[in-house]
Write a structure and sequence with these properties.
Organism (chain A): Sphingobacterium tenebrionis
Number of domains of chain A: 3
Protein name (chain B): RNA polymerase sigma-70 factor
Structural class of chain A: alpha+beta
Helix content of chain B: over 70%
Oligomer: heterodimer
Number of strands of chain B: 2
Number of helices of chain A: 8
Strand content of chain A: 25-35%
Pfam families (chain B): Sigma70_r2, Sigma70_r4_2
Largest interface: A-B, 38 and 44 residues
Keywords (chain B): Sigma factor, Transcription, Transcription regulation
Number of strands of chain A: 21
Mean pLDDT of chain A: 73
Shape of chain A: elongated
CATH class of the largest domain in chain A: Mainly Beta
Radius of gyration of chain B: 18 Å
Order of helices and strands of chain A: HHHHHEEEEEEEEEEEEEEEEHEHEEHEE
Largest sheet of chain B: 2 strands, antiparallel
CATH architecture of the largest domain in chain A: Sandwich
CATH topology of the largest domain in chain A: Jelly Rolls
Family (chain B): Belongs to the sigma-70 factor family. ECF subfamily.
Chain lengths: 354, 183
Amino acid sequence: MQGERFFELIHLYLSKKISVKEQVELDSAITNDEKLSVLFKELTKPKNMIVGPLELEEKFGKTMNATRGRDEVNRTVLKISRNAFLKYAAAILIGIFTCSVLYYGISNSYNVDNFSQKIETKNGERKNVTLPDGTHVWLNSASTIAFKKSFGKENRDISLTGEAYFEVSKNQNLPMYINAKELTVKVVGTSFNVRSYPDENRAEASLVEGKIELFINKDQKDSKFLQVIPGEKISVNYDKKLNNQPKNSETSKIPTKDMIIQKSIFLKNNSSDVPAEIAWKENKLVFDKEPFDNIISKLEKWYDVQIEIKNDSLKQHNLSGNMESDHIEDVLELLKSTGIEFKFKKENNLITIY
Amino acid sequence: MEPKGGEIDWVVEKSKIAIAKDATAFKLLFNHFYAPLLGFSLSITGNKEISEDIMADFMVKLWTQPEKLLKINHLKTYLYTSVKNLSLNALEKIKVRHNHLNSLNPEPRDLINPEREFLIKELKNQIEQAIAQLPPKSKMALILIRDNDCSYKEAADIMEVSIKTIDRHLQIAMGKIKENLNL
């Protein structure tokens, strides 16, 4: 077929005024010539802009937010020496604890079933994997990340339960969105850690270096956006009790209907210690003034044991410690040496503290 | 005549938004039109950031002044015309025409590239470039019809020209693409 005639037919096709006879002519030309077939498809079939569901959710939330005036969370500029971060080069850290009963879901358009590709770890297990887009992920115990088949091509949406540390490969056109219950993290930078176990009622985000945006989506009309800068940690408590005050907090507290958002500094420029928030990746358990029951919950996952606390008064204590051991007994002994008094007995996988 | 986007009756949704300030209806509109309008804007500005800003402002305006929706009778035409004007204004302001192809979503690249696949990809690239280099109005007409399911009438309303002019733009587009591809 002559090029001229072919384009005439495409023109007719686009105008929707093509006759049956002309349609047949066009069809046969396409079937017989691959080049024309490609040409036809490129000129007539929609080439749509792809905006992933999480990105759409973010944009919608921002629209609703903008209509309510400025973000109520005033950004606190923290002056922290860059040197403090060099050892964690380009690491962004997010810890997320959420309570499963408070699951509102990101929206109807966000269909978990789409996340067919899954990587899981059991209690006591940790994995290091590479995703299709080249992103490296360290997966902590009892955690799952899930993504779609189209991950890395049409979207970079990840759904997370548990804790994971990400080193995200750069792609300006395809921002990564990590969704953990009602908290979504948009990644503009390169590396970060996400924690979201279903048995805790707190969400945390701590940024070491780079840039992330937090998007807390409680419901459609009430979303919160927070820009996190290096050294900052964002905690979201889903109940009103502030039982676990992060260190150096007080930068801002914003009570909303049933969550409290706190900002604090988790990286100190005068400290050479690896912060608890990223120590796990290096096989270290670090607690810094953490409540006893929080620590116990972490130990259960880390060592794949069940721990029962018979003495409730222990839960009042905040403990610090830095440990690296294959045996839970060592850790418990170390906790005892910090000055609180308890005894424990171990039968198989059950540990009773009294 | 209001077109139906699938099963959605935009006349109804439009009034829900305008009269009741119904957030669910607005979300429906947002989810339905955000990506295509962004794509349309991008075809004009050639810069994703600028188009995203345009969309953000436009959507906020739409939600804060929903009463405007009452005055219009054709939602799709209104949305596209608004975004077209905003995008053209932005383009006028920056006076910098970024390289369109750089800001377009890149085709996912296969690592394994048999010769045939490679040739097809080459051809697709050539076509994409030929379209990018079309005169702005011809390009807009083609984009509206190809990507946005617009009828001649809708495209004409959005571009604020006659149906005959739309047909002429398409004809020019076809001629230029043919020329560009040496067919």
